[in-house]
Write a structure and sequence with these properties.
The chain is α+β, with helices and mostly antiparallel strands. Helix content is 28%, strand content 25%. Helix 5 crosses helix 6 and helix 11 packs parallel to helix 13. The longest helix is centred in the middle third of the chain and has 15 residues.
Length: 463
């Protein structure tokens, strides 16, 4: 999971991109980077670390021009750390351009081997570089009946050709000297939003980043859409037609996106609140507790919905240290364990002598829940019931979430009673798949629920 942002026809485009990336920091904390252009040259800065740490004032002063793209990274393909920081700036036979990618290509290893056997030299280990080499060796392709604007006839056929060869999830931004190109995979796994302020255009993984740059949200890039913006305007193409099946990642609503974002045609806040309401309806008459508390931050909104629906009072029984990052998206288990201890503190007056229900957005490995239950008991909770506002995660994700192996998933090793024992809770309840789908618009044919159901929308290698 990563965050991407782009700005076109904007004075100090790199500064606007910096602000956008800062707003998207929750989507990736390993590295940050910006590439800009003044129409003549490209300027690139990318480093390991958070946006505020990695990109300094002197860096922004070097990033000249009125167009820029940026990226914050959380690795799902390739080595962790700063080596695979994006954007990637490349000189190819089709010209020089930069690219930033959010998603995961399921046929990355196959394509990389084919390209390497053909003489391509890879500098990085992330799947993003595959786009670069596919464009470089492309002979071009335009689907029959699709007419291109004169400005797009030189480069776009090579991008179309590259996109038809990749499989999996991608939302990408490409920066050329005179334009930005945005593209989203035909199933629409990852969101990519479009904003505007006057004659300036913006692109972002989430709509919330438009607020900080003063832009107005216009719409979401459609699945399979390729959009070009340059000095002559904005143009939209659908080289792969319109597929009825969509596969929006439902985990974006459950965990990754900020609650104040608008993605997939809905507000994240409203969806999370409905998830909590559905959980309360499923547990009606089955839960006897004094108070319900959230695991901050992504558990807060479902808890509001749960409390409103159930009538059980909500309190803040855990306080989060916001100077510590998100534990689930840390790349190693050791870092995740440390972050859990550092970021949460119990509020003893809320917990002491109480039967407590605690709501979290998901339960993936069980590490966080186990430590939280112990923390609540030490703070005096008489009973601790863990409620999860999503179904059990049983299958790995191949589209950009860090759930790489079934062995890591606690719901793949134990039944619900076994998980309850492992985390030390008095009760454990999950939202059903049906309840989750009732909380979103569009139903099963609109969302990817593979991590819960094993129903993958594309062919994947489960070996």
């Amino acid at each position: 999971m990563c965050g991407i942002f782009g700005a076109f026809n904007v004075e100090n485009a790199s500064l606007h991109t910096y602000w956008g990336l800062y707003t998207l920091q929750h989507r990736g904390q390993e590295s940050a980077g910006i590439c800009s252009t003044d129409g003549e040259n490209f300027y690139l800065v990318k480093k390991q670390g958070l946006v505020l740490e990695a990109l300094r004032k002197e860096d922004l002063e070097r990033l000249k021009g009125s167009a820029a793209i940026g990226h914050v990274r959380y690795s799902t393909a390739g080595d962790i750390g700063g080596t695979n920081a994006q954007p990637i700036l490349a000189k190819t036979s089709k010209g020089e351009f930069a690219i930033a990618h959010n998603g995961n290509l399921t046929n990355y290893k196959i394509l990389r081997k084919e390209l390497s056997d053909g003489g391509a030299v890879f500098k990085y280990t992330s799947d993003t570089e595959v786009f670069v080499h596919l464009i470089d060796v492309s002979e071009g392709w335009v689907p029959e009946g699709l007419s291109l604007h004169p400005n797009d006839r030189e480069f776009l056929p090579h991008l179309f050709d590259a996109l038809r060869k990749v499989e999996g999830a991608y939302s990408i931004l490409l920066l050329l000297k005179d334009r930005i190109i945005a593209a989203r995979d035909p199933l629409g796994f990852r969101p990519l939003e479009i904003g505007r302020h006057g004659e300036s255009w913006f692109f972002s993984s989430e709509s919330v980043a438009f607020d900080i740059v003063g832009a107005e949200f216009k719409r979401e890039l459609k699945p399979g859409e390729v959009l070009v913006v340059d000095r002559d305007g904005i143009r939209s193409y659908f080289p792969f037609g319109d597929r009825e099946r969509k596969a929006f990642c439902i985990f974006e609503f459950i965990y990754f996106a900020r609650p104040d974002s608008y993605i997939f045609g809905d507000w994240v806040y409203e969806v999370r609140k409905r998830l909590g309401r559905e959980l309360a309806r499923e547990l009606k008459g089955k839960l006897d507790v004094d108070v319900v508390i959230p695991v901050p931050d992504s558990g807060i909104v479902p808890t509001i919905g749960f409390s409103e629906e159930s009538g059980i009072p909500m309190e803040l029984g855990l306080i989060r240290n916001h100077y510590v990052g998100r534990s689930f998206i840390e790349p190693t288990q050791e870092l995740r364990d440390l972050k859990v201890l550092m970021k949460l503190s119990p509020v003893k007056p809320v917990l002491n002598g109480k039967r407590v229900a605690i709501i979290d957005d998901s339960l993936v490995r069980g590490t966080t829940s186990r430590r939280i239950v112990k923390m609540l008991r030490r703070a005096g909770a008489k009973e601790v019931h863990v409620l999860i506002a999503s179904p059990p995660v049983k299958f790995p994700c191949f589209y950009g979430i860090d759930i790489p192996t079934r062995e890591e998933l606690i719901a793949n090793r134990y039944d619900i009673e076994g998980i309850r024992e492992q985390i030390g809770a008095d009760g454990l309840h999950y939202l059903s798949v049906e309840g989750m789908l009732r909380a979103v618009k569009g139903g099963a044919k609109t969302y990817c629920t593979a991590c819960f159901t094993g129903d993958y929308p594309t062919e994947v290698d489960l070996t």
